[in-house]
Each structure stands twice: as structure tokens, then as C-alpha cells.
Amino acid sequence: MPFSPVTIAPKRASAQLYRAIGGTHLAPLSSLRQFSNARNTPTSKEFFLEKKTEKVRKTPAAWPHPVYSYEQMEGVVVAHREAETMSDKVAFQAVKVLRWGLDFATGYKHDKATALHATDPQAAKAKYGMTEEKYMIRNIFLESVAGVPGMVAGMLRHLHSMRRMKRDNGWIESLLEESYNERMHLLTFLNMSQPGWFMRFMVLGAQGVWCNALFFAYLISPRTCHRFVGYLEEEAVITYTRQIKDIDAGRLPKWEKLPAPSIAIDYWKMPEDRRTMRDLLLYIRADESKHREVNHTLGNLDQVEDPNPYVSDYKDHARPHPCKDLSFQKPTGWERSDII
Ligand SMILES: [Fe+2]
Ligand SMILES: [Fe+2]
């Protein structure tokens, strides 16, 4: 699994490694600091130095984002699709393992926190309380992982189409666009927090393992992979819902007035009076809910013959059908018999 470098690294060895490459304090790696730079600076010159050229005025997003209304985004709900087939169950178990690894790697212990909170709220807050920095670490890692499946699936379908000299029926574009969207999430968070060397190391290791694992998994069972991503996105919706709730409850004071970075304002076309961190999380959560729906839907289809329902033109436009924006939300995916 992509989290193994973290899960197996003994604390002492990690601290030695940290010292060896010039770390300035000796805390073990499981603590927060190594994941991100000690001071989260609002400007990220290293990542986002604007390249000025003589002739280019601006380079907009290659895939323009559909417009979401505030009501639609507030209407996004946490949902779970029951695992029915063997393939569903394998996908769900794989997500559970991944989720455990991610929780471990990013110090996120919601279930334990909830249990302790019931008996001792103060102790729960001190021991498990999520801060803005901890959430940011989690988000950056989550997004760096989330941008891989669509690219791998899109690439494999692209190669398959050329190799078999057959049409793909529109799947490739949606899959690549999903990856692009996830990378925009990552770039947005990177605008707000620069990861430290340990976080970069984790992303590197995770990408190496994760990308290759997905490559083979998608060759073996694309249906299981789409279901797996559907379940993964269910978790992403849960994570962002918690962050929004924590802001509303006053538990993340630094985020209450934090403005969204300009990359996000441009990409999501955020209206002038809706440009806070909370608004940004609403947009990102809505995107995750869309990925959840798209992948559960693709997991219900014939992987070879069926057209991509998200780019198809329907005979009856008035009837609810899959679409790129949030007009018709179907959290657990569309059933094949309803749309093909
Ligand atoms: Fe994302
Ligand atoms: Fe996603």
C-alpha cells in the first residue's frame, strides 16, 4: 500500500534521518512539523512563481470548471453505496485499508476522538483535536493521491482504444478531467501551505507505489477500480464535511476569515462575496461528491461497450440524467438501466 513507508518507519530511525538531512529540531517524525514548513506562509513563491512572458497575457484552466450554485453545494450529503457484489466488497475493503493508512500517516483519529469526547471532551480535544495545520497536511496528502486514478484509467483506455482500433465512447476525457480537477485541489492547498521534506517524501513514495498498483489493478478489473474510487470519494466527502462543520463550530479560528487563493477564485469562478476558506471547502467537497457519483456510475456500466453518460446527449433532456454540474445529484451513482 502507498502508506507503507510511514507505517513501518520507527520513530527513532525517522528522527535520525531527519537530523541527517539538516532538520532543526529533534521531534519524532510522527509529530506535525515535518509534514509542512513550520510557518505556513500565505505566499508560495516556490510553487507559484508567475512566469511573465513578452506575448502571453494569461493561461486559464485548460478544463473550465462547471458553475455550482451555493444551494447545490450546501445540498451535498455524506452517502454510502452498499457493497453488493464480490468486486464491490473487495473495493470497499481496499478503501478501508487505505483510510487506515491515511489516518495513521496524518494523525487523524476521528473514531477514537468521538469515543473519548463522550466521556472527557477536554482530553479528547487535547489528544485528538484537529487543527488547521493537521487538516491541511491531510488534504495535501489526500489530493496528491486522488489525482492518480483518473490519469491511469484515462491513459489505459486511451492505449486500449488505439491498440484495438476502437472508439472509447467518451470515457477518457472525463477520467483525465477528474485528475486535472484533483490536481487543482492540490495546487490550491499548496498555495496555502508549503509541505516540508517529509511530506514530499511521502508523496513521492505513495505516488511510486500507488500509480503502479493502480495500473495493474485497472488492467485486471476496471469495474472494481471505479467502485474503489467511488468509495474513496465517499471518504473525501466525509473529510471535507467535517472540516466545514469544524469551521462552523468555531474549532478552526484561523480558517474563519482566511480568503481563498486567487488560483481557486479563477478556477471555480467564485463570486465576490463567497471567497472564504469555508466557501472553498464547499467547492472542493462538491467536486468530490461528483467524483463519487461518476465513479460509482462508471462501476455500474459495461466497461467496453457503454458510452460515458457524463458526456452523452440524452433524448429526453427534461428527465434527470448524469451531467457535469450539480443539477441532478445521485450520491451513490446512476444505475445502468436508468441511463443507457
Ligand atoms: Fe480532491
Ligand atoms: Fe475526488
TrEMBL record:
Give the UniProt entry's GO cellular component terms.
mitochondrial inner membrane; respiratory chain complex
Cofactor (UniProt)? Fe cation
**Looking at its record, which EC class is this enzyme?**
oxidoreductase
Binding-site list for Fe cation 2:
182, 233, 288, 291
Q: What is its EC number?
A: 1.-.-.-
Q: Can you name this protein?
A: Alternative oxidase
Pfam families per record:
AOX (PF01786)
Function per UniProt: Catalyzes cyanide-resistant oxygen consumption. May increase respiration when the cytochrome respiratory pathway is restricted, or in response to low temperatures.
Question: Which Gene Ontology MF annotations are present?
Answer: alternative oxidase activity; metal ion binding
Q: Does the record's keyword annotation contain Metal-binding?
A: yes
User: Which keywords fit this entry according to its UniProt record?
Assistant: Electron transport, Iron, Membrane, Metal-binding, Mitochondrion, Mitochondrion inner membrane, Oxidoreductase, Respiratory chain, Transit peptide, Transmembrane, Transmembrane helix, Transport
